Amino acid sequence: MTFPAMPTGDTGASARRDIELTPNWSPLERRIAPALCAEFMWMFRQAGVEHYKHRETRRYLLLGQGGACVVRTEKGFEEVDFEEEWQRVSGRRTGEENGHHE
Fold first, then answer.
1. Which of 2, 15, 12, 17 is closest to 77 using CA atoms?
2. Residue 88 pLDDT level (bands cut at 50, 70, 90)
3. 50: closest CA among 3, 98, 90, 84?
4. CA 10, CA 5: separation in Å to the nearest integer?
5. Tens digit of each residue's pLDDT (9 = 90 or more) over 32-43
6. CA–CA distance, 49 with 42 (Å, rounded to integer)
7. What is the Cα–Cα distance from 25 to 43, expressed in whole angstroms?
8. 28-40 b/e with 16+ CB inside 10 Å = b?
9. How much is the pLDDT for 99?
10. pTM assigned to the model
11. 24-28 contacts: CB < 8 A, separation 24 or more?
């Protein structure tokens, strides 16, 4: 899956122009249980990618509209394995709640 390149180098008004501020929880809700969604804050959408911030770790989980998990690279957004990114962001594997594996 291909995502548009993110603007690089410009942190001013032109970089903020493509940021959308209408929350969209659907991609996250398709990936994890509703109770786990409460651990996140929806921050913004940029280039079709939803930015969710974990309340405890303060790390971002980036999901495309179809649920593809992505990270920022020098070339833009790149698709990555959801499970690995979930572990990085939440500090645990999927299926674990409060640090305990079910």
1. 2
2. very high
3. 3
4. 13
5. 999 999 999 999
6. 11
7. 11
8. beebbeeebeebb
9. 43
10. 0.78
11. 24/50, 24/65, 26/65, 27/63, 27/64, 27/65, 27/66, 27/67, 28/52, 28/61, 28/63
Q: How far apart are CA 19 and CA 51, in angstroms?
A: 10
What is the total residue count of the chain?
A: 102
Q: How far apart are CA 56 and CA 80, in angstroms?
A: 22
Closest Cα partner for 61 from 98, 86, 44, 25? 86
